[in-house]
Amino acid sequence: MKKQALISLFMLLALASCSKNDETAATRETPVTTEQPLLKKAAPDGIKVGKDYHSLANPEEIKVTHISLDLTVDFERKVLAGTAELEITRVNPEKKRLILDTRDLTILSVTADGKDVPYILMEPDPHLGTGLLITVPKKARKITVAYETSPDASGVQWLTPQQTAGKQQPFLFTQAQAIHARSFIPLQDTPKARVTYDAIIRTPKELLAVMSAANDPNTERDGVYEFTMPQPIPSYLIALAVGDLQFKAMGERTGVYAEASWLERAANEFEDTENMLIETEKRYGDYSWGRYDLLILPPSFPFGGMENPRLSFITPTVIAGDKSLVALIAHELAHSWSGNTITNATWRDLWLNEGFTTYLTYRIMEFIYGTDRYNMELVLGAQDLAADIASLPEKDQILAIDLRGRDADDVFSNIPYEKGALFLRELETKIGRENFDAFLLGYFEHFAFQSITTEQFIDYLDDTLLAQYPQELNKERILQWIFQPGIPEGAPGASSDAFAIVDEARDAWLQGALRAGDIDTKNWNYHQWKYFVDKLPAMSIEQMSELDAAFNFTGHQNNEIAHSWLLHAINNDYKVAWDRLYDYLTSIGRNKLVKPLYKALAETPEGKAFAKKAFDVAKAGYHPLTVKANEAYVQ
Ligand code: BES
Ligand code: ZN
After folding, report:
1. At which of 483, 510, 527 does a domain end?
2. 238, 326, 354: which to mutate for ligand 1, most atoms within 8 A of CB?
3. What is the rounded distance in angstroms from the CA atom of residue 182 to the CA atom of residue 176?
């Protein structure tokens, strides 16, 4: 590292250690008052900064600090059954009632230090679930809840052997983000309360259990698996999967868990993971979590990836054979810093997780694959962002989004990701890359293992970058980025030479100057293809056929390109591709890939009838979240 960078890093650390942000600030609720004119202007009326509107729990009164799980995985009944023992600390010694979040749990008993204690299940709330109100005896330190999950738990998917790659054994996985941990553990389900945990998971003998915790790749397969997570994590990072899993090492600290038939392919596709880890550590500080492994899930996994600590959960739809979609791995790995080490205090602050992570993803892609790849990824990200800015209502274009009264899952968009990343890229551009990297390193260290609000981040900026770079940065503009819709004028752009060639070819073809078969695509990479297809306008059946004849898009095996093409096939009524569309919808459950297709189909009665047919067949294999996100399109 250059001397100058070292000096500024030192200054940052010194500044950071005397900053007014401290441990207690992480859980403090700051009502917006007139003493804070900037915040009053920034946050909507009445919003309580730091209040989690998506949890019923009361960690500011009695805090759960550690969870010990002992759960039996019952594939026959599709339930997890057992106990959660919660270690508590009284923040306010006057308070006697512990409120836990639950959803669709059957509570069998609640005991404190071995003795039954009174409890009440509150009236269920459709978004938040059911509060479990426990009267805690004065001296109690441990509360044990015996419970069972429902087969329909929103955070658990139970797969039959038929729905797995191997077809012999069942599979189970959990997905807790944003507020689904409560459907498989009674707990304080808010990202501002962090816990350590340990677990005993009992499974059929042939299966392996893995968790977002220390996993021993060489563990004996005897159906009883033990885990510990010694670092305090938010509840949405507690995760479990059980299946006929094998392990293959990719590097010293990295490896992959998958069903046998995916294992080799996955390990090859993601072989750069160890290097990503090393390169990220060089800039942003040591990786805090020990091992970093990947778990490849069945195709019904509703997301691309989930950053469960030490063990990211990954969709198999990104195993393309050419590493073209590995930005997803960079993304989940980056969360080990932005998200898992520093966490959003509430879901309003999600952009602190996803915006920083998206920014880091781009950087990691450049570290590993170079600047051309970086530029292409940036342009594709900018395209996604522009689409959301054009279509979302203004209130949903705000980084610090007001989620009061809304379902945390319903407001998922490119805003926290791409707008968040673009904001950070602007800071980087204004103060210089090295300086910005030094800032990030200081930020990750300063707030390590804390959950913070947007306002704490702004305070930190005040103390660091805004003080250091008064010429380059402007507070009003920063607040505009965070609290106003749209993209501030003059934000950094993105361009790629590799895409200029594609634009030329596409234009020439659209103008009739070139036949599709004559486009020189020999050296095109995935990103160029994706960009070519994404930016095709409305087309005639003849034009669609010509492209298909030249490039076989309907049969394309890359799931992202197939997705983009199938969207055109729907919008242009190109029925030739609808068999493929049916296969796609019934074999993939990743919501980002299927939802836009259902949405487009729902635009016409014929499309809707087709969507209904596919959905009815696919539904049994979809994750509850994918079902919920799409059922409105087929009503
Ligand atoms: N943490 C997210 C997934 C998530 C976010 C689940 C909010 C539930 C609520 C994960 O890191 C993610 O962003 N996944 C993306 C991948 C990515 C490369 C943008 C996905 O799944 O598409
Ligand atoms: Zn993410």
Report:
1. 483
2. 354
3. 8
Task: Give mean pLDDT, residues 404-412.
Answer: 87
pLDDT at 304 over 70: yes
Amino acid at 355: G
Ligand 1, atom 18, residue with closest C-alpha: 328
CA of 307 relative to ligand 2 center, distance in Å: 7
Report, as residue numbers or ranges, the catalytic residues: 332, 417
Q: Is residue 401 part of a domain?
A: yes
- Residue among 303, 329, 336 whose CB has most ligand 1 atoms within 8 A, to mutate: 303
Residues enclosing ligand 1, CB less than 6 A? Answer: 177-178, 303-307, 327-328, 331-332, 335, 354, 412, 417, 592
Nearest Cα residue to atom 22 of ligand 1: 304
8 Å CB contact between 70 and 197:
no
Instruction: Write the pLDDT tens digit of every residue in 45-91.
Output: 789 999 999 999 999 999 999 999 999 999 999 999 999 999 999 99
Ligand at shortest distance from the CA of 329? 1
Average pLDDT, the chain: 93
Full domain range(s) for residue 423 = 3-51+346-483
Bridge partners for 117 per DSSP: none
Q: In the prediction, which pLDDT does 408 show?
A: 85
Give the residue, by CA position, lying nearest to ligand 1 atom 1: 306
527: in domain: no
Q: Where are the beta strands (DSSP E) in 61-190?
A: 62-74, 79-90, 97-102, 106-112, 115-116, 119-121, 130-135, 142-148, 156-159, 171-174
CB contact set of 215 (below 8 Å; sequence gap of 6+)? 227, 257, 291, 293, 310, 311
Atom in ligand 1 nearest the alpha carbon of residue 408: 9
Indicate which CATH number applies to the domain containing 118. Answer: 2.60.40.1730
Which residues have a Cβ under 8 Å from the Cβ of 477 and sit 6 or more positions away? 488
Query: Which tokens is 264 given?
Result: 């080799």
Query: By three-state DSSP, how is residue 605 classified?
Result: helix
**Residue whose CA is at the smallest distance from ligand 1 atom 3:** 306
Under 8 Å between Cβ of 262 and 165 = yes
Overall number of domains in the chain: 4
Residues with CB under 5 A from ligand 2 (ion): 354, 357
pLDDT tens track for 375-392 = 999 999 999 999 999 999
